[in-house]
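Human:
Care to share another protein and its fold?

Assistant:
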Amino acid sequence: MSSMDMSKESVRESLRVQLWPVPLVAVILALILGQTLPSLDRHLDDSMPPVVSGILFGGGPEAARSLLETIAGSTITVTSLTFSLTVVTLQLASSQFSPRLLRTFTRDRFVHNTLALFLATFVFALTVLRSIRVETSAGPAFVPEIAVTTAFVLTIITVIGLVLFLAYLARQIRVETMLRDVHRETDETLERVFPEHHSRRPSVPSPDGRPDIVHASSSGFLTRVDTKALLSAAARLEAFVTLDVAPGASLVAGVPVARVWSAQAVPLDGDRLAGLADAVSRSLRTGFERTSTQDPSFGLQQLLDVTDKALSPGVNDPTTAVHALSHISAILCSLTARTTGPVTLYDTDDRARLNLTLPSFAELLDLVMDQLVTYAFTGPRTASRSIAMLSEITISASRAGTLATHAPALHGHRARARTAVETSTLDPVIRADLLSQLNDIDQQPQQSRA
């Protein structure tokens, strides 16, 4: 992806999570249509067939004005009430599940389109209202029949949209729907970052020798890395770059983010080093919040937040925690068939130029298990589901032929799970059953191969 493509993608992603772009476009179009249709009415005033005239609005100026005033007033009232209730509902959902899940709502196209429909109907009715004229000495009466009829049709569509939106909202605020959306978004991120059917060349170590350090130019969460621009700069300046931060990391201005070496016998001079530092700064895009664009761990963290919140004493909802753990397990199982971890990029001359830091499967499993051994082994259902997750990952790795690679990490976390069970305050019978589940995992690879 080129720098220009990256900028366009960044702008598109930024606009997608905002509520205002689509409604703003709809308001502008409604304003234009509200000015255009009355002019069309004047042009076709006496030339429309009787069949068409019979369908259109047939009242006088006062009736048209009263209708449009009613449409405008009721539409803006419904819009305000609907989205006020929506905000309250989302606040309750965020306090019970995770504030990060609100992002799935703000980027929802159905929500954007519904708000656009409501506001467009309101603006259209107001605009058409300006064109109605009663008969005076200055001129005859004028009623834009096509425009008023269009406003009436828009109102009917708005009422239908309101019913559909309320039904959609009731479904969207369910935790199962939120978890599904996060899972789907995480799968898309994994396919971008760790393509399943894409072979990666082995990562090469950084060169020997003392590197020059490049520092962050701004603070914030790293949301995107323009790898093509950085690779091109490294090739042009005959250098090798190791980027030490991954998307999702929190950057602080002045803190090291990359190391650079000269690919020639001549060390980097001031101009080349300045060029590399500028290229690194330009390639790192930061924001005030994490996004899933290039961050494979963000979706897992959202699901873990839901799990931890559900297990908190104030919520105490183990069923939600078990559902979230099921999604986490599915994501980690899909990762066993992918090549994860750092990657080396090569220039057109097949020379290694750039080392990118990306999380490995072991690091993502650590992220999950660090929180589960702390919170999930306090209850029998979540403890059992956590152990089942380790079993499912072991089976998936065996089927994918990567069990030997992931065995050390899985073995270590089974040991941690065993310690968490043994030191828990659960009933002895429950502890014995959980330990039996852990013992059974060692036999599963042979069973899956059989």
Summary: Residues 10-173 form one domain. Residues 1-6 have pLDDT under 50 and may be disordered.
